[in-house]
Amino acid sequence: MLRRTLFLFFLALFSLSAVYAEDFSEGIEYDKLKNPVTTSNPDKVVVTEVFWYGCPHCFRLEPYMVKWKETLPDGVELEIVPSVLNRNWANHARAYYALQMMGADEQMHARIFNAIHLRNQRLDTAESLADFVAKQGLDEKQFLDYFGSFPVDSKLRKNRQIERKYGHRGVPAIIVNGKYLTSASRAGSNAQMLKVVDYLIQQELAQR
Prior knowledge:
This protein is α+β, with helices and mostly antiparallel strands. Helices cover 54% and strands 12% of the residues.
């Protein structure tokens, strides 16, 4: 009787592990970059989210990212990169970096998404973005100074170069440790994409 009970217990345990163990495949749920890209922090596993404020898919991903980043294990770092794949996206990238220099990027990130996608505000020029920032209680002049500054110009040039190396064709895209590229379209959904990211993170952590 005891032997049978133990057998059933381990069978159930095995069944549960089979249900929860995820296994993903290169070329299906994710791609391996031909040439790894040097990350911003070689001491950690860096997860890079590439986005554009005007992208509805990026907007829908944001709530998932907010919850997911709270679960990041030690040794893992999330960085957010505004895409400049399209020339028309540059003002949103400039706004992100200007707000970052003001220490207000986290405060304003969801507000900009919501203004564009829930309230249909056209925040696509320096003036409209500055006016929006001012209405949120931030310094409009400081924002505009940073918006057109040399450091922000440099960040946009760097983004153009690094996005060519990533090789993604749209946003949102997630790159794990400069080696792997995935997206919701590859994985099947936003939730599934983050499972792929977790899987790749564990692979990278295991190699350290």
